[in-house]
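TICKET: design request
STATUS: open
ATTACHED STRUCTURE:
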């Protein structure tokens, strides 16, 4: 690079860094869902990290512009894109009002967002435990009502019933359970946790879930005890200390992500209901967020090395502990439909094809073959959006089992357009 090129690059970097976020809006990593009201279509947006509790409903034609809220397009350029798409002008004051509303809701990167993040990190750090975030929304908040709700999942016609498990009394090594809404998928959870209730259960559970808000480091561990309406579940300090001794504090850098993530919280009432009534237990809470390409793309070698360091460190810590440890993966499978980026809504035919693919994929999980499982998803190129990959991959690397089997499989419908999430319960001995 010549001196002139260096000066030009430096100037471009300086200009980029000094861009006014109100003129060059940069949208945070939000989730969205389509919504239909009469003949009109809208998009609902929300923050999966929980930093903002707000939601925003916007017309579909305005959502088109959100792809240009990348910190590189000015308001004027965004207006030009609207003109190109729809053949009409977007009034500048309307775009300014939209940006102001996004900023007020903490949906944009910028000073307000950074201040909110700092305050949230400080509050979580000072909190004595991770409080139940979904009690009263996804499951009952009253302890007695929650116990009745859980029992109803076991005894419902979709649940596992009362017939003894063929594995009753055996040492259980692992479970896979959904991370879908408990009040809707509760009977599917019950299929897995009935196996646990009737098994020779350990005292320590490593819970691995997908962080739906994403992680820069790939892995996030927290040392906070977890609270539910049924009491406090302590973390297993010796395992966490052993992990820290091998890997340092790097996997705690994003522990705030645990605060609003549902995937681990949804497992705890079932653990308390099945194991906690028999004896005390403790957990190691782990969230993962990394794609299958982590293990094939050379450009992702840093992320791959971090994931590998975590796995080998925890494997050794478990081995040194010398106790029975059960690994539980909280993982949904495919996400198909408009809500998940597909161009068309699912049909009965497309769902059944998806189910066939799921069951083919789960054969590799049953066989504890993490390489075949990863290769299967790499070949699919994310066509079915299997968001549970990180949890299932970590599970397969950590679980020490001889046999595994799918107990039950089902799906949930998530919007008016038949968008679908699939999930399964599995047990490993």
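STATUS: resolved
RESOLUTION: sequence designed for all positions
ATTACHED SEQUENCE:
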């Amino acid at each position: 690079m010549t001196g002139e090129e260096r000066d030009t690059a430096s100037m471009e970097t300086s200009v980029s860094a000094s861009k006014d976020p109100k003129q060059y809006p940069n949208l945070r990593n939000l989730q969205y869902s389509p919504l239909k009201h009469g003949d009109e279509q809208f998009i609902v947006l929300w923050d999966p990290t929980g930093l903002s509790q707000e939601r925003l409903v916007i017309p579909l034609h305005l959502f088109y512009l959100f792809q240009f809220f990348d910190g590189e397009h000015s308001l004027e350029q965004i207006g030009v894109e609207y003109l190109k798409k729809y053949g009409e002008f977007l009034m500048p004051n309307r775009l300014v009002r939209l940006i102001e509303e996004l900023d007020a809701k903490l949906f944009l990167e910028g000073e307000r967002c950074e201040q909110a993040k700092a305050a949230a990190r400080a509050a979580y750090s000072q909190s004595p435990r991770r409080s139940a975030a979904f009690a009263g929304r996804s499951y009952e908040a009253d302890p007695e009502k929650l116990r009745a709700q859980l029992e109803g999942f076991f005894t419902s016609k979709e649940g596992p019933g009362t017939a003894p498990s063929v594995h009753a009394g055996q040492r259980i090594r692992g479970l896979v359970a959904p991370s879908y809404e408990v009040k809707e998928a509760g009977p599917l959870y019950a299929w897995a946790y009935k196996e646990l209730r009737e098994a020779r259960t350990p005292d320590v559970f490593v819970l691995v879930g997908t962080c739906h808000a994403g992680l820069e480091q790939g892995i996030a561990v927290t040392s906070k005890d977890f609270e539910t309406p049924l009491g406090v579940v302590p973390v297993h300090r010796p395992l966490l200390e052993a992990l820290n001794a091998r890997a340092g504090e790097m996997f705690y850098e994003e522990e705030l992500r645990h605060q609003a993530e549902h995937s681990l919280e949804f497992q705890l009432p079932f653990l308390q209901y099945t194991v906690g009534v028999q004896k005390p237990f403790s957990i190691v809470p782990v969230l993962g967020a990394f794609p299958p390409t982590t293990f094939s793309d050379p450009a992702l070698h840093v992320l791959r090395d971090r994931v590998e360091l975590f796995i080998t460190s925890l494997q050794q810590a478990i081995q040194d502990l010398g106790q029975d440890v059960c690994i539980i993966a909280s993982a949904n499978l495919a996400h198909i439909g408009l809500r998940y980026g597909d161009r068309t809504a699912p049909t009965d035919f497309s769902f059944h094809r998806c189910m066939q693919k799921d069951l083919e994929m789960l054969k590799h999980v049953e066989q504890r073959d993490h390489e075949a499982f990863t290769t299967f998803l790499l070949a699919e190129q994310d066509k079915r959006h299997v968001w549970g990959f990180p949890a299932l991959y970590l599970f397969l690397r950590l679980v020490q089992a001889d046999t595994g089997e799918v107990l039950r499989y089902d799906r949930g419908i998530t919007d008016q357009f038949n968008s679908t999430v699939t999930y399964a319960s599995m047990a490993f001995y």
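CLOSING REMARK: The CA atoms of residues 143 and 229 lie 5 Å apart. The chain has two domains: 16-118, 129-428.
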